[in-house]
Amino acid sequence: MKSNRLKISMLSRFLIALGGLALIACLFVPIWSIDLDAPQYPEGLNLKIYANKIGGNVEIINGLNHYIGMKTLHKEDFIEFTVLPYILMFFSVIFVLVAIIGSRKLMNLLLAIFIVFGIVSMVDFWRWEYDYGHDLNPNAAIIVPGMAYQPPLIGFKQLLNFGAYSMPDIGGYIIVLSGFLLLSAVVLEIRNKNRLSKISNKQTAAVAAFLFFFSSCEHKPKAINLNKDNCHNCEMTISDKRFGAEILTKKGRVHKFDDLSCLLRFLQRDSTQKQAIFYVTDFITPNKLIDASSAIFIKGQNVNSPMGGNIAAFTSLDSAKVYAEKLDAQILNWKEVYP
Predict the structure, then answer these.
(1) Helices 10-24 and 80-101: crossing angle, nearest 10°?
(2) Edge to edge, what strands does the sheet with 296-299 contain?
(3) How far apart, in whole angstroms, are the C-alpha atoms of residue 26 and residue 128?
(4) Reduced to 3 states, what is the DSSP secondary structure of residue 161?
(5) Single pTM value for the model
(6) Least confident of 13-17, 36-40, 93-97
(7) SS3 label, residue 113
(8) Domain range list for the chain
(9) Residues 177 and 239 sit within 8 Å (Cβ to Cβ)
(10) Which of 181, 15, 210, 18 shows the shortest CA–CA distance to 115?
(11) d(Cα 162, Cα 1) in Å, to the nearest integer?
């Protein structure tokens, strides 16, 4: 009987085995992606980081980096590309073995080791980005005093006239999914034994670590920093929050605008963003971003927005009516603003 209590259920075994098999795909698809946007490259540049190589626009980026003194990227310079495929295969095999053996202790140990692997990987990636962005050639053609070019670990960062976006790619999300399946099996076994109220500190830390990772990868709009952020279209500093707007792309990139008219002009040039999510600032509560599709707008010469769009957004129809009457403006919905 004691031996049976130490075994995990068939459902938990299935989840763990599925996670292990999924890791095999990480050998063939990119794990991480760093995308670069700049006016001179409207279609963007990207680095695709695989388990055993770097893909994407490597040669173009190496050529640009040469001018500012950054190192050129070569697969041979990274030991990670040699060892990472073996680490992924190791975890894939161990996942399947734990599923076959069905030991609860081995399952918990595997979760702890997999979390450590994730943390070490992110620290190593950050270390590489730091070295890449700070170790500059002092004899470079272009030198900006005090400037470093470290890409963001996750999210967006402005590097001179380039916007850098760093996010997990297909392989990265598969690794997170495998960890989540393993974590689900651990939680399932705890529930099966009615021990949710006695979760150990280590198990609590494991759950918290994965929840934090998932929340950090969630795509969501970002607050507009007044007098610091620049408009993605006209490149002027955003100085009036009441008329701010944002585009949240499918990849989680955030483009900020000082006027809704700037957002609309940008969309005319870049039709690929039409499937993105659009946000506008509530005129009454400037720190609040609302989904443009549900917002109410007023338009008129007396609205007087920064770039002449003369459109303001509101959360409620009642508020829009009050200001429309006060400013002699027309009330519109999103489809009328952006047909």
Answers:
(1) 160
(2) 311-314, 296-299, 330-332
(3) 20
(4) coil
(5) 0.61
(6) 36-40
(7) helix
(8) 2-216, 241-337
(9) no
(10) 210
(11) 63
Average pLDDT over residues 99-117: 93
Neighbours of 43 (CB within 10 A): 9
The tokens for 19 are 């996670």
**Segment holding 157, helix H or strand E:** strand 155-159
Cα(17)–Cα(12) distance, integer angstroms? 9
Phi and psi at residue 87, in whole multiples of 5°?
-65, -45
Q: How far apart are CA 62 and CA 73, in angstroms?
A: 7
Q: Which two tokens stand for residue 294?
A: 């549900």
Query: Cα separation of 285 and 265, whole Å?
Result: 25
Place of tokens 């995308």: 35
- The 3-state secondary structure of 266-325 reads HHHHCHHHHHCEEEEEECCCCCCEEEHHHCEEEECHHHCCCCCCCEEEECCHHHHHHHHH
Nearest to 164 by CA among 46, 280, 317: 46
Please state, rounded to an integer, the average pLDDT across all residues of the chain: 84
Helices (H) and strands (E) in the chain, counts: 10, 12
